[in-house]
Amino acid sequence: MLDLLHIENIAVIEEADIRFRPGFNALTGETGAGKSIVIDAMGAVLGGRTSRELIRTGADRAFVSACFSNLPADLPGLAACGVSPDENGELLLQREIFEDGKNACRANGRPVTVAQLRQIGGELLNIHGQHDGAQLLDEERHCAYLDRFGRTDAPLEAYRAAYGVMADLAAKMAALRMDEAEKARRMDSLRFQIGELERAELTPGEEEALLERRELLRNGEKYLSALSGADYALSGDDEGGGAVTALREAEAAMASVRNLGGDLAELYKRLEEARCEVYDLAETIRDKRAEFDFSPAELDAVESRTDLLYRLKKKYGATVEECIAYLDRCREELDAMETADDTLLRLEKQHAKAQQAVLAAGATLTEARRQAAAALEARIQSELRDLDMRRVRFAIEFTPRQPGPDGCDAIRFLMSANVGEDLRPIARIASGGELARIMLALKNVLAEQESVGTLVFDEVDTGVSGRAAQKVAEKLAQVSRRKQVLCVTHLPQLAAMADTHFSVEKGEAKGRTFTHVVLLDREQRKAELARITGGAAVTPALLESAGELLDAAEAYRKGL
After folding, report:
1. 331: pLDDT confidence band, cut at 50, 70 and 90?
2. Residue 126: its pLDDT value, please?
3. Is 500 helix (H, G, I), strand (E, B) or coil?
4. Which residues of 135-156 are buried (b: 16+ CB within 10 A; e: fewer)?
5. Considering the entire predicted model, what is its pTM?
6. Cβ(4)–Cβ(67) under 8 Å?
7. In the chain, N or C: fewer CB atoms in 10 Å?
8. What are residue 333's phi and psi, to 5 degrees?
9. What integer is the mean pLDDT of 393-417?
């Protein structure tokens, strides 16, 4: 359960600590006081989407933390994130939101990502927003609700695997079944491209070698001049001279004294090594000078080849290697098109087999869903009776359809609001109050299937009043005996039924708006219930009525 929610700099809340208790917790307050901000803070610390607009004006960051207790040690979400409750079964979630949009999240002091925080939060707390009832109008969600209740993960995963194989084969077949004229045009285009690339006889790495050779040929005279100058400086001419000769003479001069001391021997050795090195350099330069054959015809050929590569790269790839890879793909595509009939026949046989596997997996999935639907109908019907909707009938309709990613059935929820009326889609006939109560029933049933310990209802009373409101209050009281319930409400019946009552109050100080969350005692609860019932004019009669409402609610809770 959620023990403590700490909020800093979220919208109009500068700082607040809300210590929730087991059972039914209610939050009330004037419209705009900040009740929904508390829900937003809960969503934020559980990894929900946030915006920097949530940060209080003038603050550079917002901070929310939530402390949970009595948690089992084997929650899958915690284990997957490498987090576990402490020795007392407690878990502290924290999230900082900065102005630049960055987040810092922790679970029991361990850094986690927002996605991990969301995974952990999904196992701890479930928020039913004030607009969630409208989700029942979207028939695409009905199948997901049924699967969630029936826990059809295994047959659904098996079906999706089979469907994926069939869809992949269908895509390959569609690619082969092109228009004959289009096919002929494509084959002609492929043959032209293959021919052009094959005639070029491309080889990997040739472009770099060509560019280097072209640069050398373009600077041939400078190249020869440089080599000639270096050769003369090192080797001299027919009359002698050059570095090699000078070093040889120096070596000969030192030869007679090299045995007179170690330092002279070292000098002689260095002269010998220098002469050998310079001699090798001179030979290398002479060889390069002899090897270089400057030919204008070769330069023209290199320029022509370079231009060809440039034109091919513009059409087929950024590099020669990419052009070669494109050639390979063209050959494969042309070969596939030339043998398309044989390939198509083979794929059709595989597709037929895959289709049978899909239908078999679909039938298994449908059967699992029908069993779940029968149980869900009975549970929803029971919940609706508790919510004063005894005459409402609820049913789940299955309509066969072509296999799709989620099965072979279209699933939608039907209802009949009045005796004698046919079952019709909920989206067409349900009122706002009916939607709210049906969604409450569905959420309660789904919550029984899950390990979530805390349920949050944000204005679940929308469109509900009178006797129906009392039934909703009683239902939440019943649920709170199994799970912790937090409810934001405007109805006195719901607020009176709570075990713990908080008031969200807004005020001003030093030119700024502040919101405070106050735990109410019995007398304060009477005043708040009277305000909810009668508005600004709180009379003794309203206070007395509020006291009676509290007494009746307390008696009901004791009887549970």
Report:
1. very high
2. 82
3. strand
4. bbeeeeebbebbbbbbebeebb
5. 0.62
6. yes
7. C
8. -65, -45
9. 89
